[in-house]
Amino acid sequence: MFPFLKMIIGLPRKRRTYRSYRGEVGKIAPNQLQRNFKATTPAQKWLTDITEFRVKEEKLYFSPILDYFNNEIIAYNLSRRPNFQQVQQMLEQAVRKCPKNATPILHSDQGWQYQMRGYQAFLKANGIRQSMSRKGNCLDNAAMESFFGRLKTECFHGKSFESIEALEQAIRSYVCYYNEERIQLKLKGLSPIQYRKQSLK
């Protein structure tokens, strides 16, 4: 149905979802994963993306890095604006947690943040190999999309938040719960952190 017809008959308009793609504003990295998400050790294949939340017309942006070895969220940043500083702070967290001598692939979509020289230079300086999905192909980053769906189902949809601050706290609490307690079939009935610790024994 056309948007103007929805307005005439009083139907709510569907809100746009956040999209970081703004065309080729920098260098596009090759798709090194090619949907091969299998990882045999921690810090081998990392995934990242940004998703948007709304509370009373305010917006909150969540930018995490997921380690596909155990689906653990190893770093994240919450911000009122989806700017480069948000991604930079997330990367700095991830580097601090990265095992010595590891050279992970960090896969993303073609969002403008990931095309920036500063982003790409930071990855190179820290031994991180960049990978990008093909344009408009969410299946190339399916595991990250799956996490966002789970997060919003379990932490956001059907719930009422009085403020952005309340939502921010809920997301922080959920990430702790998800990493430490939420069991997954892929991880043999263990949580991400439990699985990682067991694999290192």
UniProtKB/TrEMBL annotation:
The protein's matches in Pfam families, at most eight in alphabetical order, are given as: rve, rve_2
**What are the protein's GO molecular function terms?**
nucleic acid binding
Q: Which InterPro entries match?
A: Integrase_cat-core, RNaseH-like_sf, RNaseH_sf, Transpos_IS3, Transposase_IS3/IS150/IS904
Q: Where is the Integrase catalytic domain?
A: 38-200
What Gene3D superfamilies does the annotation carry? Ribonuclease H-like superfamily/Ribonuclease H (3.30.420.10)
Please give the biological process terms from Gene Ontology that the record holds: DNA integration
Q: What is this protein called?
A: Transposase
Instruction: Give the organism the record lists.
Output: Frederiksenia canicola
